[in-house]
């Protein structure tokens, strides 16, 4: 009986060791948690608090409850900015992902040539260029006397030319194409990285069965890139909803409010109109919209891996 007494002591020692390791782990994580709490969670809580008040950012504030949120969905200028952000998803997300799939598939087929390296470099170049510089360059290209209109005139299409960023009908699509150009390189490289992990034996077996390039792409490449496509869609959708810099540089939300997006509207409300409460309410709605768009994509990917 005397020999059975050390067992509880051993369990207690093991428990203390696990506790010590757990505390050590939390100590390593603590700086990141503090940084996240101060610079992410605290601003979110303060924004939610400010959204319930009418405040100019300096003087006293007055409680308005959910009135600011009601105005977001009833004021045409504010609600249209949300609609424009959703429309930009087509340009910022659908075009780069679909075109990136096609470009990545072509680059994979010529991977052994120098042309593939040059293509990857050229396509990824927009990711290296600052977005402010990209916005300025595209503003020159799409102006009434820009390279795009000059090229159209050379082709005899002078009747089609216009100030693409200054026309109510073409301003938003023009901004969307700039965003698609910027994000195409990122999507292409992510998809190329995913293609490099596909077993070449799958393609060899498909060729032996008589499958062509299109059947290989549809039946092998695309299903094998589910995770990479989900990452591309998530990143580009968030970029569309949270767009600011390209639009601020190229159109500043104009003409009229044709290219106004929530990020730019929040900036104007907070710093030009001194409507901090209204800006905070729009920011909270934008955050919920981003989460509502991103979570289903993650759930779809998770379910596909089960």
Topology:
Layout: H1 6-50, E1 53-54, E2 62-63, H2 67-74, H3 76-109, H4 114-128, H5 131-141, H6 147-154, H7 171-195, H8 200-208, H9 213-224, H10 226-241, H11 245-250, H12 262-271, H13 276-304
Keywords: Cell membrane, Membrane, Transmembrane, Transmembrane helix, Transport
GO biological process, one term: transmembrane transport
Subcellular location: Cell membrane
CATH class of the largest domain: Mainly Alpha
Low-pLDDT residue spans = none
Instruction: Report strand order across the widest sheet.
Output: 1-2
On the 0 to 100 scale, the average pLDDT is 88
Characterize the overall form.
flat
Q: What is the strand content? A: under 5%
How would a textbook summarize the main sheet?
2 strands, antiparallel
Number of helices: 13
Which second-level CATH architecture of the largest domain applies? Orthogonal Bundle
Report helical residue fraction.
over 70%
Radius of gyration: 26 Å
Helix-strand makeup class: mainly alpha
What does this structure look like?
This protein has 306 residues and is mainly alpha-helical. The protein folds into two domains: 2-44; 67-304, Orthogonal Bundle (MetI-like fold). 75% of the residues lie in helices and 1% in strands. It has helices spanning 6-50, 67-74, 76-109, 114-128, 131-141, 147-154, 171-195, 200-208, 213-224, 226-241, 245-250, 262-271, 276-304, and strands spanning 53-54, 62-63. Strands 1-2 form a two-stranded antiparallel ribbon. β1 and β2 form a beta hairpin. α7 runs antiparallel to α10 and α10 runs antiparallel to α13. One of its GO terms (cellular component) is plasma membrane. It is found in: Cell membrane. It is a multi-pass membrane protein. Its main location: membrane. Belongs to the binding-protein-dependent transport system permease family.
């Amino acid at each position: 009986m005397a020999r059975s007494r050390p067992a509880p002591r051993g369990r207690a020692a093991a428990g203390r060791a696990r506790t010590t390791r757990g505390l050590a782990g939390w100590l390593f994580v603590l700086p990141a948690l503090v940084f996240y709490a101060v610079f992410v969670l605290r601003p979110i809580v303060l924004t939610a608090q400010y959204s319930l008040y009418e405040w100019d950012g300096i003087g006293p504030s007055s409680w308005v409850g959910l009135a600011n949120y009601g105005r977001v969905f009833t004021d045409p200028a504010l609600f249209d900015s949300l609609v424009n952000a959703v429309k930009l998803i087509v340009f910022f997300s659908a075009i780069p992902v679909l075109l990136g799939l096609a470009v990545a598939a072509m680059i994979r087929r010529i991977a052994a040539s120098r042309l593939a390296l040059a293509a990857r470099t050229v396509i990824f170049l927009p990711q290296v260029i600052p977005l402010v510089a990209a916005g300025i360059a595209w503003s020159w290209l799409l102006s009434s006397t820009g390279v795009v209109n000059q090229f159209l005139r050379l082709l005899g299409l002078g009747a089609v030319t216009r100030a693409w960023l200054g026309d109510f009908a073409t301003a938003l699509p023009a901004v969307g194409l700039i965003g698609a150009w910027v994000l195409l390189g990122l999507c292409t490289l992510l998809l190329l990285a995913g293609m490099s992990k596909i077993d070449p034996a799958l393609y060899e077996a498909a060729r032996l069965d008589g499958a062509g390039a299109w059947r290989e792409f549809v039946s092998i490449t695309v299903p094998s890139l589910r995770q990479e496509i989900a990452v591309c869609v998530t990143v580009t959708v968030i970029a569309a909803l949270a767009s600011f810099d390209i639009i601020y540089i190229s159109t500043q939300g104009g003409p009229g409010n044709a290219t106004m997006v929530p990020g730019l509207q929040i900036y104007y409300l907070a710093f030009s109109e001194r409507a901090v409460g209204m800006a905070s309410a729009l920011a909270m709605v934008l955050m919920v919209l981003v989460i509502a768009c991103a979570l289903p994509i993650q759930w779809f990917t998770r379910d596909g891996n089960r």
